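Hi there. Long-time user, first ticket. I'm pasting a complex I've been working with (about 870 residues overall). I'd like to know whether the download I got is complete or cut off, because the file seemed smaller than I expected. Thanks.
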Amino acid sequence: MRSIGLRSLAAISTLLFVWLVTGTAWAAKRPKYGGTLRVELHVASVSLDPREWKVGSVAAAENEKLATLIYDRLVTLDDYGRFQPALATEWSHDAAVRNWQFKLRSGVKFSDGSALTPVDVANALQSLFPPGLQIIPGENNLTIRAAHPLPDLLEQLASGRYFVFRKNADGTFRGTGSFYLGESVPAQPSEVNPAALKPGHLKFRANEEAWAGRPFVDAVEVTLGAPGLRQILDLQVGRADLIEIAPDLVRKARQDNLLVWSSAPNTLLALRFDNSQAAAADDRLREAVDLALDRDTMASVLLQREAQPATALLPQWLTGYAFLLGSPMNLNRAKEIRASLPASEAGIAEPLRLRVDASGDLMKLLGERVAVNARQANLAVQVTPHGTAAAATNSNPAAAGLHLIAWHYDSLSGYAELGALVSQLHLQDGSETVPTAAEPERLYAEERRLLDQRQLLPLIVLPDYVGIGPSVRDWSPAPWGEWRLGDVWLEFGETTASGAASGSSRTSTKDRIPGVRP
Amino acid sequence: MPLTHVLSSPQNAVWLIPQSPFSRKCCSFTAIFLMFIFLAIRAVAAEASSLEDAARLLADRVVSIPNLHGPLRLEFTEGGGLAASPGKAWLGSFRKELEARHFDVTEDSSAPVLRIAVTATPTQLILAVSARSVDHDEVRFVSLPRALIRPANLPVAPLRIERQLVFESPELILDASSLWNGSEGGIELLAYRKGELTALQLDAAGAVKQSIPLTAAALHPSRDPHGELYARGNEVDVFLPGKVCTFIWAPGSEVKCHSARPVWRGTAFVTPSCDPGGWKIVSDGRDWTAPETLQVVPDGAAREGSAAIPSEFPGPVLNVNGEQNPASALVVTRNLRSGNYEVYRITLACGN
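Hi, the file is complete. Here it is re-exported in full:
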């Protein structure tokens, strides 16, 4: 009898042990729900209204990063070149590619519980597309009609600002995405130094009813206006999980053994000529400046190989032909052209004025490098950094003939991107082009023509750099830089000791495991 | 000429035709001519469905460049975007295609250059070439939808794990099970079809014989969906979070679901024909962004010294099922090169 009892006890113990072991192994195998993902960004403020975003601006790119948390698109593009259903489950177009039909996913709700209707989708997209494009809601579908072919409509819908959103009467925005905006604390003057601002905070909470499934993390907490070095420190000590890393700090981050992810090069730094200064209208001067630019040195020395020299307006990863464009540096030819110019053009008495239109030390350094390159070709360039009194108040009576600009690639359609560049940077020249097809030949010819005009001289292209904390799992953003935080989860045991002791907003392991394994 | 380029949206350009009658005529003629050229190019490009096809089309386009004569030196630029560079092997086949068209290619560094790049853009595979012809550069392209390109066949795992790809799908596969009919014929799958959870019965060739939607399960959407199939002859149990559904393989079969706490499958084992001992299949599956090396390790204390046999999969291992047939197991993985979900049958082969 006793022996049977012992045997039973042994059997139960064995079963319990097996259950514990397999249970533990299982728990380690699957993603975990819970926790707060802490993100730090450089920008001091963001806008969640896609209608307000300035296409191509770096600020719009930051807005888009956060908008992907709360809004959905009609379609998305996966990493394998396949369009995937999102709010639209099926789509088709006519032979002329002017009329598109989208069948909308049924049962989708906004994060406030109200149902998404075809009218909501049409209203959102109509406010973002040009008036010439008709967006007609149906019973459970949507028709998009245009007077001209739209072969790249899916590329456009899968990128940029083409989110589906609704603005409520109280001015708040709602989406159907993985998260909703729970709290927003704008930047405020610091008590210690009223001249300085305390960073703003945004807290996005998990949308339990998201059609794609609840995100793994409970919340995403975003700190705005965090300086670059501070972000790196916060990642090191466990106060942040995801940070942006400025290109000039990437080397330091790597030396500090931080995990750094980089996107495809998605920000173009370029020189834009401005005919406000008469000399800038001279084709030969523009050619001389172009030939004097040492892009390789800018990328390899100034940016420590964290950037690539840009020979084209659109990047290689978007077009496949950028390597065929651009003219190599030719200082002798630049000097010859300069010698043929009037001495007053970009001379000592009347230098070509270069205004740095984007903020940051890197942009200032790059402007100075342009001036050095120009000087080697006997061209005088005077740099006005961003944010100086002359640049900010326009108190300098002499207009700038050259601008150093930053352009963030926004669209997965090369045509749309080039069109936006032309429009936003006023590169029109009256040429007649009808973009009726999406062949690379057409795009190449158009870009070649723009480059030959030399109104915009590409300098370098930069990727996004993101520092990733040790707890972050399944960080799998799109190669072109779009974040997919709904799929990210946190490994709870990986918090650094200093992070745990820092009193940061990370919730405890106990709090973060709600036991909601599906 | 006045500026006629109008953008009605920053994102979407509308380009107007100039108002001058001369320009209009000139442009109409040019437009028709260009349209003809581009339609011809498009027709050519549309035929390509693999990198080899693309090499052939590109060679056709190169030899048709007016006044371009060999020998030319090939200069390959890494365009990027591909998981594995086509590199020298592809360049070799392109060279052969050129030579088959009696176009001379040389290694001579002083020879004129034919520049080539293969780039995977987000949606397309673009092959671009450029060569100097008389006094200008000629550029030619071949493009094909990126989704059409199949990744190169993965090397078969070495030595003693034999692996066979039995099914793949762009949609999520939750579980796979061998058909319990005494043979190694078909399989059953629990997978998504057009966004709906479905049980599928496949024949040995991978063709779908039957499909039964599991709408009755009324699953709550999840980013980590989980489910398992248990077949007993014609009868099937589907274990889902918080419920179990049952049906039989028959046309119009009704799916019945009830609340239950399913006991999920444990470790999978395989037994090779020459070894009576079981071998445990060990996978991690924690990092869904990286390929995984599945290991088959000997089970039992007396065999601890035996080495594990690794087999590298093209993505994370999502599920392993060794229940239906002791000699083999089915492994569900996501191929990170293609994005497809794949089912492999693995067996332990004896000897080398």
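A couple of notes from our side: The radius of gyration of chain B is 28 Å. The helical segments of chain B are 21-46, 51-63, 87-100.
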